[in-house]
Write a structure and sequence with these properties.
Elements lengths: L5 H16 L5 E7 L8 E3 L2 E3 L1 H13 L2 E7 L1 H9 L5 E5 L12 E2 L4 E9 L16 E5 L17 E5 L2 H9 L5 E5 H10 L7 E15 L4 H16 L2 H8 L8
Parallel strand pairs: 1-4, 8-9, 8-10
Antiparallel strand pairs: 2-3, 5-11, 6-11, 7-10, 7-11
Helix pairs in contact: 1-6, 2-6
Amino acid sequence: MRAVTQNAVHYLLLVLALLSASVQAERFSVLVYHGANPPYNYLEQGEQAGIFKDIFDRIGELTGHEFEFVLLSVARGHKSFESGEIDIEPGVNPSWRQSSRVPGIYSIDYAFSREVVLGRKEANPTRQPESFYGKVMGRVRGYRYGSFERHFGPGKIAVYDNISERELLVQLAHTRLDYIMIGDVTAAYYIANYPAYSGFREVYEISKLPVSMRIQPKRAELKREVDQALRHMLEQGEITQIYHKYGIIMPPL
């Protein structure tokens, strides 16, 4: 009987390769949005928890680095990344940051993000964005929605900005908004855990895009290490397991 399995050897070689490339462990800042989007990030007994926390805990084990979460508003977070105060913004598709002064460099893709329009229980699903014309739709200030935005403006969809998905859900429940734009993972979390939102339903898919880690351009070596760690986690099914822990079935890339 062999003393170690092939997977164990692969894992050991990966760890040795990562650690040899980084002789001294470093500490990096990771942007998360306060009051924003569980199950990606939230506070549990005053401590950070959620999908991003679990992913970076594992990346830390594989690289030897430490990752510090910085809670900011979306607008403030974007400015902090551009000024170089933030090293990593997780869960980003490059198309969302094309207009940034510092678009960043990106890790390999590790999951998908579906952005949807959410309505109350009486709302009807549609495939036509024009169905929303004349309605008021909530959006997190600073979020971008690509080609869907051509339907915003006078005579089209009236957009109302707020600071977080949580605030938008409250406004939708109190009929202050007709619809909201939100990630389907976050929507599923709130619908499953908050009775006030249990009747909410997805009525339109805005986009389905792969996401990666947005990294400061000066951190090219960190990108290489994160890529190696994410690739290992994908091969071992660890990303899938992390999402499943929060009740999310993530389709393969």
